[in-house]
């Protein structure tokens, strides 16, 4: 007799999605949001949460891992023949992905799950490293810092911009531009050169969703 694995019931699948969506909102408001607050936002009881996630950490792990994977997938489509513009585009796309979840994004990359987040973002980090290596070879990126170290500094620049933007109500267009400016400065471009590069490429302009 062949057993058939049944797919999750539609209501169970929807409830799980609702919990993840609610967690995304609540944790962006308060990184320490409780399961009760998340369940209430989803319109479910705390008991219903345990039918999907045994602990708050388990819910956080799935939410953050899925989110990091989505970011890596989104950035994977960024292409440009100029590696410096490509890196600015990566910074732009990264900001667009985390704009609405600033607080949660900072928690994800700085918090206890940063190792898992790092694994999910490995393809993104490799793309950044490859673009920097290409730019260094072409002479458009600074050569006084080894490529792997410069890649880490570029990542730190983007995270610093995210952290600063999450502290208050910085408008999205301003935070978006600041992220690109910090990344370009880390790559060795001057302030005027960075601004001119951004302004001369329409694809780097902020556009509302």
Summarize the structure.
The chain has 209 residues and is mainly α. It has helices at residues 10-29, 35-42, 46-50, 56-75, 83-98, 102-110, 114-120, 122-138, 147-166, 172-187, 191-199.
Secondary-structure blueprint:
Blueprint: H1 10-29, H2 35-42, H3 46-50, H4 56-75, H5 83-98, H6 102-110, H7 114-120, H8 122-138, H9 147-166, H10 172-187, H11 191-199
Helix pairs in contact: 1-2, 1-6, 4-7, 5-8, 5-10, 6-7, 6-9, 8-9, 9-10, 10-11
Shape: elongated
Instruction: Output the radius of gyration.
Output: 20 Å
Q: Count structural domains.
A: 2
Given the helix and strand composition, which structural class is it? mainly alpha
CATH superfamily grouping of the largest domain: Tetracycline Repressor, domain 2
What fold name stands as the CATH topology of the largest domain? Tetracycline Repressor, domain 2
Strand content: under 5%
Q: Write the element-wise H/E pattern from the N-terminal end onward.
A: HHHHHHHHHHH
Helix tally? 11
In words, what does this structure look like?
The protein has 209 residues and is mostly helical. The chain folds into 2 domains: 9-54, Arc Repressor Mutant, subunit A, CATH 1.10.10; 64-204, Tetracycline Repressor, domain 2, CATH 1.10.357.10. It has 11 helices and no strands. Helix 1 crosses helix 2 and helix 4 runs parallel beside helix 7. It starts with 9 loop residues before the first helix and ends in a 10-residue tail after the last helix. The model has no long low-confidence stretch (mean pLDDT 86).
